[in-house]
Fold this protein.
Amino acid sequence: MNDKVVLVTGGASGIGAATVAAFAEAGAVVGVCDIDEAGAERVASAHEGAFAVPMDVTDAAGVKAAVDDVASAHGGIDVLANVAGWDRVMPFVETDPEFWDRVIAINYRGILATCHAVIPHMVARGGGAIVNTASEAGRNGSSGEAVYSGTKGGVIAFSKALAREVARHGIRVNVVAPGLVDTPLLQGMISEGHGRLMEAIVKATPIRRFGRPEEVAEAILFLASDRASFITGQTLGVSGGLVMG
Ligand code: NAD
């Protein structure tokens, strides 16, 4: 990753922050993109070559402006790791259209916005790699996360279609599908009273524990690297075997 220019959305926390660390350690120049500007500054200041990029992925025009700024300051963009995401656990019948819009805006449209902004820069550079973060919920469904599961399934299908479109430009597009990973998002769900649901998911996980953010970050780094040069359109489960195949 020496001197590669990398953008990580959701880089201020959890899996995104671990992804920033993994790329920075591998020698990349990393833009820590997040709506949480203070968090992005904090993570960026902990890694040589990292810098904060204030970004709300639901604001497509703002995403484009931020991406264009990074590309002109650093001579292009090599890797986009989309990690930003959000959910709240509740039965589907208790959700409302405002909630649907928020979940879709962050988890699905956010990925459309960043890919749309970054791909022209990768085409100009003659290649690149995109890794989108879905969830095993997007392959198997997750009780209490119906809308979220739909957005993550959408991320997987979108990524496959995009992989087909952009392969001719030397751009690879892959997906990581985490299971339960110990992050502030997961801890928030537990503190909101969903600990028993999480315990049940751990029981259904052959490797019976939560994942660590670094374990997902390693998978993202691999898929973004030249070691994965013949891999595109794939979904890699990082979930202790929760979903197989
Ligand atoms: P987290 O809450 O710790 O971090 C998410 C980050 O995304 C935060 O820094 C937040 O500020 C940022 N973010 C939220 N909305 C944003 C927006 N509009 N624009 C820019 N940034 C925004 O969560 P996490 O657990 O690290 O999750 C990271 C990704 O992994 C998400 O896509 C999530 O859906 C996925 N995932 C997590 C788990 C898990 O168990 N933790 C499981 C499956 C999938």
